[in-house]
Amino acid sequence: MTSIPYPRWVVALGAAAILAPVIAVGPAAVAADRQSAVVVRTDQGAVRGTVAADHRSFQGIPYGRPPLGALRWAPPQPGPTWTGVRDATRPGAACAQLQGLPMDAPSKSEDCLYLNVTTPRSSARTARPVLLWLHGGDFRFGGGDGYGGQRLAAGGDVIVVTVNYRLGALGFLAHPALAGRDGITGNFGLQDQQAALRWVRRNAAAFGGDPGNVTVFGQSAGATSVCAQLAAPGSAGLFHRAILQSNSCANAVQTRAEAIAAAEEFARRIGCTDPAAVAACLRGRTPARLIETAGYPGAGVDLGPVVDGHTLPVDPAEALTTGRLHRVPVLTGMNRDESRLAVWGMERVGLNCPAPSSPPGTALSRHEPSSVPSSQPVPSSVPVPSSVPVPSSVPVPSSVPVPSSVPDPSPVPESCPLTDDQYREQVRAMFGFHSDEVLSRYPRDRAHPASATLGAVLTDHEYAEPVYSAALAFARRVSTFVYEFADEDAPFFSEGPEPTFATGAYHCAELPYLFTVDYAETFTPTQRRLSDEMVRTWSDFARTGRAGWPRLRPDAPYVRVFAGGGGSVRTDFAAAHSYDFWRSLGR
Length: 587
Prior knowledge:
The chain is α/β, with parallel strands linked by helices. It is built from 17 helices and 17 strands.
């Protein structure tokens, strides 16, 4: 995650419309009467899970004490113990977050430090690799139970662990008044992730897993979490491989000064302004009030990982440059059309539609946080169930023209295609004096709609350049393998109006190919084969630290493409995404 002041809520709306049902229902919410039970003994006590045709599932296992009362804004403590057998057939509560659309219904649970374990049904003679998943969500949204591990576990013969961690103000508020005796505050969500990794080290063997072969992997903000753990001393020795999907360690996290400024602004907004009573005031606020005040992406207070000198002593981007990272093999990559989701999000809420009464939009600059309104209006309603949280975040353009008021999409927003003139206006607003170069590099043509062209600009600028730059930096120090997901027919899951352009391999499109999710449409036979191939690749990398293609080298830039017609190795990733062009502009 970066501290870029743009209306990320646009893309959060898109992600919610696509993925919301996965959190509302949960892929593992299978009728118990169709399954048999299984009991495993952890170091806290015995848990009873379920057995399905090809996998075993254990849900809602507490890996930390509920962070309530004095434990709010404190490092996670070891989980509770119990006698007897604990039911582990239902997921635990997700951490407090805004839910649904509009994002105005905060969940209230602070008792949320739970994880889920999925294993193959059969036992094995040797311990299996363990993959621990860190979900995305802009460090504001999401939960581990939304990602069913059975596809990976059964198809890859591995153990899959998915994790909840504290989010938003409860997970990342770095106010000095909340500091402990060591003077450290913030990064509680990162500390939760480390606590989950320690739980895996202690308990993997009980589920048939190998505590000496753990892969940590994540997507979007989850990939940022992986970057943070690669640079965090507290995670040393807790994992042995890393997979980063659709984000890059080249993107900076907040400095301590930025995090403190954000925390002080948060305290002001929530009404805790007395310097002598800030801590008590904050601790007296309800979870719902805290989550509401943090707000939605782009218009709330930017909270996330911070270089605090302790949990995260160095920015992962700096650690990548200097080599101060845990030396583990890396698999990293992105989706070919990442930013088409962002462009669709703009279309979905009517930002492209004429608004004669509204003044023209103005661009929000990466370097101008003061240009962010203190209360950006949000759509009043969107046809997505209001009871479900937004599960994923998407890094979006560094600057996006924002109208002074967002078109009210009630009851159903009108989807207006981006026009050629709007495309040029967007590029000029985003890239300033470089805009002519960008427009020359990405000209409009009749073969592709303007939305697809803007999607290509943003994908190459916001994803391909930093992901590939980070991959080259990794490759100088550790075995590094790069992929691109490129199924141009990846199912697009949404309610309401269909996109007016082909969404291709958009941000989040690879997730149903790896995880079991309830929202996914039925794959074609070709897509099922592609899913099998990706599951095999992810699990083989976890098992051996190698992928089925050559490692990345500066003189041999191999990138594996996962496409509907089957994977292939290609060397033109940089050319296909205008990598040298963006490097010349300095991003």
